[in-house]
Design goal:
The protein is α/β, with parallel strands linked by helices. The protein has 2 domains: 117 residues, HAD superfamily/HAD-like (Rossmann fold), CATH 3.40.50.1000; 104 residues, Rossmann fold (3-Layer(aba) Sandwich), CATH 3.40.50. It contains 10 helices and 15 strands. β8, α6 and β9 form a beta-alpha-beta unit. The longest helix has 12 residues.
Length: 258
């Protein structure tokens, strides 16, 4: 744990690590205060595409945590950056919330439900058959299929809910096309996070609750990894994977120590 505490850069997932729904997880307040006190570089890097960084900042503020907006990076921002780098001025049909809508708009990517360059799918509380049917027709018509992240499920206060990969699966099955997923574990998002921190991978750690996105993303980007058991993964499910995290913690509250 001393080696972990000496790291200068901390990249943290949010759902299942910092909070469940609107409830702050135990030890998080102490962890965030420790990051500030020890002058660590840190970034909350979330696969959720639902919210903007400002909304995430305000969400933590309602829970009593004062974190600057610059400490947040989302799969929605990563998706907008990727599409803009691939096809500046492109258009997209979007199944998702305002987080991804705003990110695309800020990059000059217009909404198009007739003949878009891309179909972009993220988490959506309004997910319905009409949207999926339209997305299938557009992909069959030539639009390229993009997923904001690779999460199959997500934690919530009420239990596990379907996430992006589950929502995009019907489109893949009906079209025979495979989506390109931008968020974790895609190294694109992780490398951007490291650049934002200004820290070398050898001096950074990835903290998350998912073996299939957070931990593998950290390993493949050259970071030490810490799995917290406050979200999706358990010690038992951890054993199902051919790779291991460097640390297994009950939660981020274990990091500051006494």
């Amino acid at each position: 744990m001393d080696l972990l505490r000496k790291k200068q850069g901390f990249i943290c997932d949010m759902d299942g690590v910092i909070y469940h729904g609107n409830a702050l997880l135990p030890g998080v307040r102490e962890f965030v205060l420790w990051l500030s006190r020890e002058k660590k570089n840190y970034l909350f890097l979330t696969n959720s595409s639902q919210y903007t960084p400002k909304e995430l900042q305000q969400k933590l503020a309602r829970m009593g945590l004062d974190v600057d907006e610059s400490h947040f990076y989302t799969s929605a921002l990563a998706t907008a950056y990727f599409l803009d780098s691939q096809a500046p001025g492109c258009s997209a049909y979007v199944v998702g919330e305002h987080g991804v809508m705003n990110a695309l708009y800020d990059k000059g990517i217009t909404y198009n439900d007739v003949n878009p360059d891309y179909v972009v799918v993220g988490e959506s509380s309004a997910y319905n058959l009409e949207q999926i049917t339209k997305a299938i027709r557009l992909v069959n018509g030539g639009a390229k299929l993009i997923g904001t992240n690779y999460d199959l499920t997500a934690p919530s206060e009420a239990g596990i809910v379907p996430a992006c990969r589950a929502l995009i699966a019907p489109i893949e099955l009906a079209t025979g096309k495979h989506a390109y997923f931008v968020g974790k574990p895609n190294p694109l998002m992780m490398r951007t996070g490291l650049r934002m921190l200004g820290v070398h991978s050898e001096n950074a750690v990835m903290i998350g609750d998912r073996m299939d996105t957070d931990i593998i993303a950290g390993i493949e980007t050259g970071l030490d990894t810490a799995l917290v058991l406050s979200g999706v993964s358990t010690r038992e499910t951890c054993e199902q994977y051919p790779y291991r995290p460097h640390y297994i913690l009950s939660g981020v509250g274990d990091i500051p120590g006494n």
